[in-house]
Amino acid sequence: VRDAATRVLGPGTEPAGPREVPFAAQSRKALELTLREGLRLGHEHLGTEHLLLGVLGLEDGPLTRALADLGVTKEAAEREIAAAPHADPAPHSDPAS
Questions:
Q1: What pTM was computed for the model?
Q2: Are 4 and 67 a contacting pair, CB within 8 Å?
Q3: 74-83 and 48-56 are packed helices; what angle lies between their axes, rounded to 10 degrees?
Q4: Minimal CA–CA distance to 64: which of 43, 33, 21, 23?
Q5: Tens digit of pLDDT for each residue in 75-97?
Q6: How far is CA 78 from CA 23, 59, 82, in A?
């Protein structure tokens, strides 16, 4: 997946330090969809699984097409996420208790 993403998006760069990241319109849309997926699923925290669903929700994105070429679909990802046990600990829980 990393190789496919790098082929369509480029290698990226390391940030020089804290600054505002100028997201492209499609990136902003993917982040908006990420939030919507988390809310739709009723999850308290957003994770990489929600980001994956957000990216897959972009109907015509280069990364969406690259993932589709690898056989990754939104429907299959949703099934895997629904089948996965929730490993998120309760907020402010003490692991020792």
A1: 0.70
A2: yes
A3: 160
A4: 33
A5: 999 999 888 876 444 444 444 44
A6: 26, 16, 6
Burial of 4-37, coded b for 16+ CB within 10 Å and e otherwise, reads bbeeeeeeeeeeeeeeeeeeeeebebbbebbeeb
What confidence score (pLDDT) does residue 66 get? 92
Supply angle C-alpha 83, 86, 89, rounded to 5: 175
Per-residue pLDDT averaged across 52-63, rounded? Answer: 90
CA distance 69 to 33: 21
Residue of 70, 97, 42, 19 lying closest to 55 (CA atoms): 70
CA distances to 30, 45, 57, 76, 85 from 4, in Å: 18, 27, 18, 18, 28
What is the identity of the amino acid at 11?
A: P
Q: Token digits for 58?
A: 């972009």
